[in-house]
Amino acid sequence: EILSITTLGNQVLIKTNGSEYVTYDSIKKMMEKVPNTTFYKVQSGAIVNIHKIRSFDRKTGELILCQGDKFFVSRRLRTPLYQALKVGK
Known about the structure:
This protein is α+β, with helices and mostly antiparallel strands. Helices cover 24% and strands 42% of the residues. The strands form two sheets. A five-stranded antiparallel beta sheet has the order 3-2-1-5-4. A three-stranded antiparallel beta sheet has the order 6-7-8, with no helix packed on it. β1 (2-8) and β2 (11-16) form a beta hairpin. The longest helix is centred in the C-terminal third of the chain and has 14 residues, at 75-88.
């Protein structure tokens, strides 16, 4: 199950529970391939699975996934993510 998708230059890193995969694709194309009810863009180069979020601080934008990976959510994306997390609970 996918935890996060991030950019690495002209490549995309797909992180799962136990593995990492690298592909030549764009974040935009990856967003089209994954369900938009499960995956949310948190930065210009990162998408996370909202079901794998351990904690999210709306004020600072710090997001921690269940595996311990940290992301900082951009200011304009904090409110939509916060609302999606509220609906999911």
